[in-house]
């Protein structure tokens, strides 16, 4: 049961990422692209967790944590860039 | 899978190389970064592509080759240091030479028509 | 005094200890002790980076508030998911100017985050003077209702907790 | 043996003038003369004292692998030249004392002169070809210094350069010749080489050897067509001309031909080249000597002509000719040195060397006139002086020559022509300078020079007379010895005399003298005749040649090194593609023996994302921010790929590095143009795409080829040893901090250096700061969004906690100091982003450089600690401790090492980012938040 | 914890895992889908701001159940990720909205209310330095 | 002393740590520390040379791990000689720098020592990846030092240098990857061992990796199509750094020498000597181009850079030639050219100081003080570089020429001799213009810094010293060449009794 659910989830999450990629690709505005990227980060957390379930290993938990943290920071950086130009002023 | 992996590495490498051949500092630095990603992927795969084999002793039967991983780790760090230096140098070069052309001889003025693009 | 100096932020310290235990993924004496050590050490190290300390006046209310928000998040998400996945019905979005009564940055942040996480609203911009919040609503007819709901559901508890 | 003392003494003499100049000019001159005088004494002492030995030799090993020895020999030939070099050298020293003006640095001149003398002594005494070559080139260098002594004059500089270039080039040809001789004979030892005549002449390399060696000799001895440097070397002070260009340096070429005569001569090739060159030079030099108006110019061309005479004698090659040549060497040195010195006196006294301006000096300077005339007569080959004797011997040989078969008449013809001309220019020299009525007053009123200045001339002239009148007396044994060496031992009969009875040579001499006088009378017509040819000054030709060559080279280098990075990059890539392609072409099949793993859709998606990201990064590079976002996608997916293929550590590292890189690139992008103008033409783009595709294709092929072959690697060891040997379960981390800890030490050093370097780069950087974003919007005035501020300070403790956690578990689980350091750094950077540099800087009251360095230091000292226990650097240790309540704790030295990494990463990253942020802080107006 | 060993626990856990997995993935997918098909940026923003958070959160919960199932241990570590996301997601959304407003991205025609940010008047900071790529204006250096 | 081989790496690192604790300019204390440390490095290098002179190969196993697994430092005659050469060059440079150049920016001495660390590490390491790491250390340090003091020309040429070398680093990694992926080890001795038993289907891969490695090293060493960046970069670098850069190209040469004699030596079967023809023709082409280029120089520093290129071409030819004899000569030539070129760069800086605005451009200038002294030094350097007797260049060139076989000599001799001639022409033009073509009037120019002078003299004194001591030094280089050819000795020293076979494959690729 879990196996089937897992593969369905894999498929859905992968589709989600591809949709993100589509948004990233077409824009049209920069914020659109950024939000697509940000969502892609979050969705890759989901992907990694699914992978973790698939492999039954815990080694990627920190990966998920780090993506959550770093994805945020990178989004903040881009936003700051668009708002102020200078990220660290 | 191997074929796809190799093709991907190749395309990434090609993109990186193409960028490094541009005439402005920023694309060149981006290209070098991209190239270093590609090279890391390449180097990483030299130990083979292993699923479920994280090199943590006691967690699995067959391990991925840990040595290329260690090498790639070192390469990532060094690549980061180099990228950082290169991009700051690009800034310095713009500050000193007034242009971000890699050869320092062109103007920064964009074609007015292109501003709309 | 000593306690105050060593534990400038008891809540933060306890949160950190808890987080450490969560990180360690296992509750042993070792992890607890380590968590406590870190819970004391890290606030001391980072103290200088904190602005004025938010003082929690009613911890119980905070707990209740938190639970309510959690629930709202769940509902909100389902609602949004429902909205999004209905291409046949166009949502009626709106920008709403929400007047703030909260003063402290920390509580404003909490409010704004809460708004963003809960049904169909996103706090889009905090005005520079800190007096009002621009909110984007996904689907609404009645703007005042939303303002009232936010005020009653979130802002007033926060006022009570922190200010 | 004591032979090396002779060159050594003269060499030590180089330093004497500088020391002695304090005592005054006379003392300096005398002191300078000491070393050559002693050396001369030694030469005579050795030579007269040697008992029966043909050749005295000494040798020490120097560089045996090269076959280079410090080897000197003293034989008849050396002796002859040594006497000339040292003897005339002494006279020149004396003459110079009075010649140089107060302004000129006497010590420098003497030093150069003695240096030159040393190298000449070295040439003639060397018993090793390479050693000889060394001295040979040294004469070029020292003559360069001497000719350019008056370096403020353009002619001196140019003349010196030309002399240096031509003789230097000849020297290099000589070296090649010597190398070939070495290849043929297997040695550079002159003694051995001289005995290998048959071996050398039989070798197929023989023509090359002859040509190369003769190139050396001809350039040095100013043989046509390499003669042109000599007249321009006349820009040198006269003592230099007298010494170098009459007696010594130009004779070095002659010496070389003599020295190698036993080994190289006796073939048709040798005879033809040497004789003909000599004869042509003889006539050519004489003709121009006749036409020149500059005193020294006349003498220079006359020297060329006489050298041609000697050379042609060497070409004829029989023993009588050799005797004549040797004899003429002596004679030429005697009269030409005195003539040069006399010319110097005239120049010195009148201020002019132009014969058109001179005249009538005999009244004012009778003694000089007399001396000059005697020397001139000798030069003209008029009896009863020494010049006549050697010239008559030359005529004799010329008339007797049979080497050219049916064309042999050409030899006496040219010889006669040369003789005729030499009579003419000699006459003209003497007449125009001393006897003709002056056309104009000379710049200075001349009078007789001081006696010591004249003394060298007197001495030489007296020698001319003595040699002429009593030719058999002093020089016979010397000549005998010299000839014996040159003829490899066989001793011909010879007899030097003024009067051999009436014979063809005598008749030729008489005819030549008569014709010479006639020609002199026709001088004006000859000048007119000459004027119809375009004046071809060799100097201009040479200069123009060099200029053109330089210009050509400049154009070539400018074209190649056009300062275009794109081109250099292209070349690098092209060469790399070639390298990889060559290897790949060597592969039988690309696919190896290993089956491929099945493709799963997630991997396919990742690959698709990567490809999209990569291609778009490249394709959209003109929109830099978008390109950057695409790069970010690549970074993210790469890290997911690492996770997918069992490399959690890599995934974590890649992720954190990627984010930091993004931040960094964006920080920098602010100061750079936001868009790249379109400037690459279509062709360029096509070219770049092609090379990039080629490169990518090669990389992909290599990757595929490796992936489909099994690998027998050393990794098994690491997995086996990780726990027992390294004390950690995370093999990657154990490799990093233990097995290959040295790499890691280097890696954090790199990081620290990057921090330092970037600090250096940012120093006093001036930058453009855009006031609007790329679409012309003004910046938002919300500098530090409140929400962000609050969240960032909430996140900081959490991030620190996480980084500490990741650091601690690194040895056993994915993580480690590097990732932990990056997390800490990123958290702090978030603080910087949300609160601004000023705010953060106030609260972070430590500097980052010391932290980074402390990190490197910590790792290094951890490594050093193993020395205390007698283990090599970086040997790790670990142990398990049991603590009450807490349980088992493992402490590894690698953890401290990792701590160093952590510190270095934090320090370096912040050094990079925070310093970059600081760039603008102070200068941005701060309206809303004062 | 003996009750954990019962068979029905396994079944329950399995079911829970599967449920949360699908629910999470579905929400994730829907929010990304919304990001593609919604009409303006402000609308598109809603999905990632919360739906994704929840979706990932649910998957994390599924993961916790899964490990409870196979290892009989409770990995609270994963909760941390969720907490992190909860803290950060609204802030990202907020900042993005700020950017969008700053860039005056047009909102959908049906949107009621017009915030001052989207009106035409100038709200930005006065230029202290001219834009270097702005032809005709002089360039100034920061010393 | 068992730790001796690591001293040349650790000493600079420790000194750098001490010097970099705080960010400050150069003060007397720092200078003293820096110079003393460099002198100490010279002493250590001498010690190292004396230890290995009898043919012993010192192996230092870092972390006490046996050879193919851990990283080893290997000090044989070649490594020791290179370390000594570096130390000597560094001594001259650092003394010169203490004459004032070090104050033009921050952290000069610290970075200088880090660069020394990188260079020494590259010379000593026996591990290919570690070589990469040390390459990066020395490169990054060199980037930093190249920018020392700033200035447009430096930034401009520095950018090219940096970008090319970054690309080069990527190529290096690709090459390393291919080699590891097909050979399965990183230790060079072990690689040599394994290459000899390489299955046929891997040959192409190894060849590709090896050739790519050659390209990378060629970029560092500045072989013909890859050298165009060098003249500008080196001529714009601060003098002491330019001087130190003289060894940087030699690191490339060294790496080529080491890798392609050890790994792809006799034992390598089909891959034996695979770089030889490339080196030979590349070297000749470099030599030829540099010969033309040296004539084109409009600036003294450029000219010195081209002298350096000539020497690189010569060295590459030396590597490309067959037989060991040429290698002894080539190493001797390397000693000569490194020191002299370094000295010339230092000298050019002193000349620039004196001439003021004109700098080192080869044009007429004002009269300046110390022209005699400086011209004498220039004479020494130029004569030596051009390869004229009696200084070291002539000896080295003659030796190299004499080792060529006839068919090689046919190419090498004319080029080498012409390069010498071009050197003579160029140097005499430059020298006579710079020192002699000047206006009248009182000589101008600042006081000569004693540090700069001493540093320059230290390096240029190599010209006569190498000649005087040619016997022993030449003997050493000859012995080095013989030792290098005998790879069995190196391999057994490094690997001991360990067979290179590891038990079982560790990589699962299914």
Features:
heterohexamer; C: 163 residues; mainly alpha; Alpha-Beta Plaits; three-stranded antiparallel β-sheet; 11% strand; globular; D: 930 residues; two-stranded antiparallel ribbon; 39 helices; 5 strands; 71% helix; disordered C terminus; transmembrane (chain D)
Characterise this structure.
The complex is a heterohexamer of chains A (89), B (117), C (163), D (930), E (143) and F (510). Chain B is mainly α and 117 residues long. Chain B is 62% helix and 0% strand. Chain B has a single domain (2-51, 64-97), classed as Helix Hairpins. Chain B has helices at residues 2-20, 25-45, 66-97. The radius of gyration of chain B is 19 Å and the shape is elongated. The termini of chain B are far apart. By secondary structure, chain C is mainly alpha-helical. Chain C folds into two domains: 2-49, no CATH class; 59-162, Alpha-Beta Plaits, CATH 3.30.70. In chain C, 60% of the residues lie in helices and 11% in strands. Chain C has a three-stranded antiparallel sheet, with helices on one face. In chain C, a hairpin with a 5-residue loop joins strand 2 (121-126) and strand 3 (132-137). The mean pLDDT of chain C is 80. With 930 residues, chain D is mainly α. Chain D has 39 helices and five strands. A two-stranded antiparallel sheet of chain D has the order 1-2. In chain D, strands 4-5 form a two-stranded antiparallel sheet. In chain D, strand 4 (878-883) and strand 5 form a beta hairpin. In chain D, helix 36 (817-835) runs parallel beside helix 39. Chain E has 143 residues and is mainly alpha-helical. Chain E has one domain (2-107). In chain E, helix 1 (7-37) packs antiparallel against helix 2 (41-71) and helix 2 (41-71) runs antiparallel to helix 3. Chain E is elongated, with a radius of gyration of 24 Å. Chain E starts with 6 loop residues before the first helix and ends with a strand. Residues 122-143 of chain E have low confidence and may be disordered. The interface between D and F is large, with 132 and 137 residues.
Summed up, what is this model?
The complex is a heterohexamer of chains A (89), B (117), C (163), D (930), E (143) and F (510). Chain A has 89 residues and is mainly α.
The helix content of chain E, as a percent range, equals 55-70%
What is the overall number of helices of chain D? 39
> How many H/I helices of chain E?
3
Main sheet characteristics of chain E: none
Q: Pick out the low-confidence regions of chain D.
A: 922-930
How do the strands line up in the largest sheet of chain D?
1-2
Report how far apart the termini of chain E are: 69 Å
Instruction: Work out the number of β strands of chain E.
Output: 1
Region (Disordered) (chain E): 108-143
InterPro entries (chain E): PhaG_MnhG_YufB
GO molecular function, one term (chain E): sodium:proton antiporter activity
Keywords (chain E): Membrane, Transmembrane, Transmembrane helix
């Amino acid at each position: 049961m879990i196996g089937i659910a897992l593969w369905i989830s894999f498929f859905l999450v992968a589709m989600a990422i591809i949709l993100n990629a589509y948004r990233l690709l077409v824009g049209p505005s920069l914020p659109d692209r950024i939000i697509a990227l940000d969502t892609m980060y979050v969705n890759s957390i989901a992907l990694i967790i699914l992978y973790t379930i698939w492999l039954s290993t815990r080694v990627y938990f920190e990966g998920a944590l780090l993506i959550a943290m770093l994805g945020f920071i990178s989004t903040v950086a881009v936003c700051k860039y668009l708002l102020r130009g200078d990220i660290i002023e | 899978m191997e074929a796809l992996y190799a093709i991907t590495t190749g395309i990434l490498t090609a993109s990186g190389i193409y960028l490094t051949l541009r005439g402005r500092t920023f694309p060149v630095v981006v290209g070098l970064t991209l190239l270093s990603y590609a090279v890391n992927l390449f180097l990483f795969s030299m130990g083979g592509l292993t699923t479920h084999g994280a090199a943590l002793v006691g967690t699995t039967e067959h391990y991925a080759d840990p040595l290329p991983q260690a090498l790639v780790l070192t390469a990532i760090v060094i690549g980061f240091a180099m990228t950082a230096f290169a991009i700051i140098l690009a800034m310095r070069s713009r500050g000193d030479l007034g242009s971000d052309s890699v050869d320092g001889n062109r103007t920064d003025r964009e074609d007015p028509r292109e501003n709309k693009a | 005094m000593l306690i105050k100096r060593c534990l400038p932020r008891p809540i933060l310290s306890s949160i950190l200890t808890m987080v450490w235990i969560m990180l360690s993924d296992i509750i042993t004496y070792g992890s607890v002790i380590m968590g406590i050590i870190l819970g004391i050490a890290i606030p001391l190290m980072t103290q200088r980076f904190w602005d004025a300390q938010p003082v929690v006046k009613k911890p119980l209310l905070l707990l209740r508030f938190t639970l309510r928000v959690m629930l709202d998040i769940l509902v909100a998400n389902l609602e949004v998911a429902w909205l999004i996945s209905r291409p046949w019905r166009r949502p009626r979005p709106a920008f709403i100017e929400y007047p703030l009564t909260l003063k402290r940055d920390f509580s404003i942040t909490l409010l704004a985050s809460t708004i963003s996480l809960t049904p169909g609203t996103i706090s889009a911009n905090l005005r520079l003077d800190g007096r009002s919040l621009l909110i984007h609503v996904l689907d609404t007819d009645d703007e005042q209702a939303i303002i009232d709901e936010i005020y009653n559901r979130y802002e007033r508890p926060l006022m009570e907790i922190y200010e | 043996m004591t032979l090396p003392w002779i060159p050594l003494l003269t060499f030590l003499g180089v330093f004497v003038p500088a020391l002695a100049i304090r005592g005054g000019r006379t003392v300096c001159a005398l002191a300078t003369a000491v070393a050559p005088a002693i050396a001369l004494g030694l030469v005579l002492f050795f030579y007269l004292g040697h008992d029966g030995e043909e050749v005295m030799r000494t040798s020490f090993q120097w560089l045996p692998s090269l076959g280079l020895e410090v080897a000197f020999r003293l034989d008849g030939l050396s002796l002859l030249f040594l006497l000339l070099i040292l003897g005339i050298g002494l006279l020149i020293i004396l003459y110079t004392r009075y010649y140089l003006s107060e302004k000129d640095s006497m010590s420098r001149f003497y030093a150069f002169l003695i240096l030159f003398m040393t190298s000449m002594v070295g040439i003639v005494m060397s018993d090793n070809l390479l050693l000889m070559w060394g001295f040979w080139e040294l004469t070029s260098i020292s003559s360069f210094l001497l000719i350019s002594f008056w370096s403020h004059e353009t002619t001196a500089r140019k003349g010196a350069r030309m002399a240096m270039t031509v003789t230097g080039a000849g020297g290099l040809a000589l070296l090649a010749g010597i190398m070939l001789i070495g290849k043929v004979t297997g040695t550079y030892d002159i003694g051995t080489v001289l005995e290998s005549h048959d071996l050398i002449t039989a070798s197929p390399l023989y023509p090359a050897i002859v040509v190369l060696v003769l190139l050396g000799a001809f350039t040095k001895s100013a043989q046509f067509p390499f003669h042109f440097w000599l007249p321009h070397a006349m820009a040198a002070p006269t003592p230099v001309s007298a010494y170098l260009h009459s007696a010594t340096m130009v004779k070095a070429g002659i010496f070389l031909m003599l020295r190698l005569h036993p080994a190289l001569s006796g073939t048709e090739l040798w005879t033809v080249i040497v004789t003909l060159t000599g004869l042509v030079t003889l006539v050519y030099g004489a003709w121009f000597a006749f036409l020149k108006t500059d005193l020294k110019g006349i003498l220079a061309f006359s020297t060329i002509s006489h050298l041609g005479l000697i050379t042609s004698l060497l070409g004829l090659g029989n023993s009588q000719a050799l005797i004549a040549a040797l004899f003429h060497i002596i004679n030429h040195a005697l009269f030409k040195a005195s003539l040069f010195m006399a010319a110097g006196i005239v120049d010195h006294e009148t201020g002019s060397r132009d014969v058109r301006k001179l005249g009538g000096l005999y009244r004012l300077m009778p003694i000089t006139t007399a001396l000059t005339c005697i020397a001139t007569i000798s030069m003209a080959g008029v009896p009863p002086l020494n010049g006549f004797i050697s010239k008559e011997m030359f005529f004799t040989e010329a008339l007797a020559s049979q080497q050219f078969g049916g064309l042999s008449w050409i030899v006496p013809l040219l010889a006669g022509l040369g003789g005729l001309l030499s009579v003419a220019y000699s006459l003209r020299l003497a007449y125009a300078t001393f006897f003709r009525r002056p056309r104009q007053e000379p710049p200075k009123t001349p009078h007789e020079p001081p006696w010591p200045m004249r003394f060298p001339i007197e001495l030489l002239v007296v020698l001319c007379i003595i040699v002429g009148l009593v030719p058999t007396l002093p020089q016979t044994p010397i000549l005998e010895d010299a000839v014996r060496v040159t003829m490899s031992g066989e001793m011909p009969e010879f007899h030097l005399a003024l009067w051999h009875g009436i014979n063809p040579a005598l008749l030729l001499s008489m005819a030549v003298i008569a014709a010479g006088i006639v020609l002199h009378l026709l001088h004006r017509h000859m000048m007119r005749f000459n004027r119809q040819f375009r004046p071809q000054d060799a100097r201009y030709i040479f200069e123009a040649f060099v200029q053109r060559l330089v210009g050509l080279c400049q154009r070539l280098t400018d074209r190649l090194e056009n300062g275009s990075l794109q081109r250099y990059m292209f070349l690098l890539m092209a060469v790399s593609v070639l390298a990889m392609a060559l290897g790949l072409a060597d592969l039988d099949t690309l696919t190896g023996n290993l089956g491929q793993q099945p493709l799963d859709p997630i991997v396919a998606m990742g690959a698709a994302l990567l490809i999209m990201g990569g291609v778009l990064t490249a394709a959209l590079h003109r929109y830099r921010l978008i390109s950057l976002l695409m790069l970010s996608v690549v970074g993210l997916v790469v890290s997911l790929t690492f996770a997918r293929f069992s490399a959690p550590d890599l995934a974590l590292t890649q992720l954190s590095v990627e984010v930091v890189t993004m931040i960094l690139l964006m920080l920098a992008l602010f100061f750079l143009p936001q868009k790249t103008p379109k400037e690459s033409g279509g062709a360029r783009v096509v070219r770049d795409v092609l090379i990039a595709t080629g490169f990518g294709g090669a990389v992909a092929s290599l990757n595929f080829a490796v992936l489909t072959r099994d690998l027998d690697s050393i990794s098994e060891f690491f997995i086996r040893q990780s726990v027992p040997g390294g004390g950690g379960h995370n093999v990657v981390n154990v490799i990093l901090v233990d097995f290959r800890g040295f790499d890691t030490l280097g890696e954090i050093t790199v990081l620290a250096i990057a921090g330092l370097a970037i600090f250096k780069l940012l120093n006093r950087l001036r930058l453009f700061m855009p006031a609007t974003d790329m679409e012309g919007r003004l910046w938002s005035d919300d500098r530090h969004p409140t929400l962000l501020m609050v969240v960032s300070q909430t996140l900081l403790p959490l991030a620190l906690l996480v980084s500490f956690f990741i650091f601690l578990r690194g040895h056993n689980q994915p993580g480690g100091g590097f990732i932990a350091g990056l997390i800490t750094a990123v958290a702090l950077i978030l603080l910087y982003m949300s609160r601004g540099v000023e705010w953060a800087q106030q609260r972070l009251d430590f500097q980052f450089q010391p932290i980074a360095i402390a990190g490197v230091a910590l790792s290094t000292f951890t490594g050093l600690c193993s020395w205390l226990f007698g283990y090599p650097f970086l040997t790790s240790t670990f142990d398990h401790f049991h603590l009450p309540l807490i349980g088992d704790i493992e402490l590894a030295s690698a953890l401290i090492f990792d701590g160093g990494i952590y510190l270095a990463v934090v320090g370096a990253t912040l050094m990079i980012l925070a310093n970059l942020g600081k760039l603008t802080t102070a200068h941005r107006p701060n309206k809303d938040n004062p | 914890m003996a009750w954990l060993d019962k068979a029905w626990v396994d079944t329950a856990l399995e079911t829970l895992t599967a449920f949360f997995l699908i629910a999470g993935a579905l929400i994730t997918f829907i929010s990304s889908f919304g990001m593609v098909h919604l009409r303006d940026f402000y609308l598109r923003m809603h999905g990632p701001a919360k739906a994704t958070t929840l979706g990932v959160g649910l998957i994390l919960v599924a993961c916790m159940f899964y490990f409870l199932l196979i290892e009989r241990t409770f990995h609270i570590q994963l909760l941390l990720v969720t907490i992190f996301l909860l803290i950060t997601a609204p802030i990202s959304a907020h900042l993005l909205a700020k950017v969008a407003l700053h860039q005056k991205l047009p909102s959908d025609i049906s949107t009621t209310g017009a915030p001052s940010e989207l009106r035409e008047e100038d709200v930005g900071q006065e230029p202290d330095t001219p834009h270097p790529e702005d032809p005709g204006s002089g360039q100034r250096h920061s010393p | 002393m068992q730790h001796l081989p690591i001293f040349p790496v650790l000493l600079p690192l420790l000194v750098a740590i001490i010097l970099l604790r705080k960010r400050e300019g150069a003060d007397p204390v720092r200078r003293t520390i820096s110079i003393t440390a460099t002198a100490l490095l010279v002493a250590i290098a001498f010690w190292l040379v004396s230890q290995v002179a009898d043919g012993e190969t010192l192996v230092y196993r870092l972390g006490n791990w046996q050879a193919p697994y851990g990283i080893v430092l290997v000090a044989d005659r070649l490594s020791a000689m290179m370390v000594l050469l570096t130390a000597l060059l560094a001594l001259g440079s650092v003394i010169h720098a203490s004459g004032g150049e070090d104050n033009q920016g921050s952290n000069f001495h610290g970075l200088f020592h880090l660069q020394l660390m990188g260079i020494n590490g590259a010379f000593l390491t026996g591990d290919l990846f570690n070589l990469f790491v040390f390459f990066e250390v020395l490169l990054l340090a060199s980037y930093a030092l190249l920018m020392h003091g700033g200035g447009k020309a430096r930034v401009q040429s520095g950018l090219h240098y940096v970008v090319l070398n970054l690309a080069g680093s990527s190529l290096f990694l690709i090459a390393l990857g291919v080699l590891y992926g097909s050979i399965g080890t990183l230790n060079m001795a072990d690689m040599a061992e394994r290459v000899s038993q390489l299955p046929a289907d891997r040959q192409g891969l190894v060849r590709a990796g090896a050739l790519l490695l050659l390209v990378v090293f060629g970029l560092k060493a500045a072989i013909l199509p890859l050298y165009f960046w060098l003249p500008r970069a080196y001529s714009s670098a601060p003098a002491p750094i330019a001087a130190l850069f003289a060894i940087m190209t030699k690191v490339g040469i060294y790496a080529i020498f080491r890798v392609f004699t050890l790994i792809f030596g006799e034992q390598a079967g089909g891959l034996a000597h695979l770089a030889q023809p490339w080196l030979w023709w590349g070297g000749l082409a470099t030599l030829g181009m540099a010969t033309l280029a040296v004539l084109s120089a409009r600036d003294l520093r450029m000219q010195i850079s081209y002298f350096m290129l000539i020497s690189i071409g010569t060295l590459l030819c030396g590597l490309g030639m067959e037989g060991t004899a040429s290698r002894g000569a080539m190493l001797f030539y390397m000693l000569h050219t490194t020191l002299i070129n370094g000295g010339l760069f230092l000298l050019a800086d002193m000349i620039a100081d004196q001439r003021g605005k004109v700098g080192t451009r080869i044009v007429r200038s004002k009269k300046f003080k110390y022209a005699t002294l400086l011209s004498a030094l220039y004479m020494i350097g130029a004569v030596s570089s051009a390869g004229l007797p009696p200084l070291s260049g002539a000896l080295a060139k003659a030796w190299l020429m004499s080792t060529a076989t006839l068919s090689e000599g046919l190419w090498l001799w004319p080029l080498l001799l012409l390069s010498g001639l071009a050197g003579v022409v160029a140097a005499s033009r430059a020298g006579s213009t710079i020192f002699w073509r000047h206006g009248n009037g009182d000589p101008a120019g600042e006081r000569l810094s004693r540090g700069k002078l001493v540093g320059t003299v230290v390096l240029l004194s190599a010209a006569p010293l190498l000649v005087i001591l040619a016997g022993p030094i030449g003997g050493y280089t000859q012995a080095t060449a013989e030792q290098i050819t005998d790879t069995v000795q190196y391999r057994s020293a490094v690997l001991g009794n360990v067979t290179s076979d590891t038990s079982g494959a560790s990589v699962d690729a299914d």
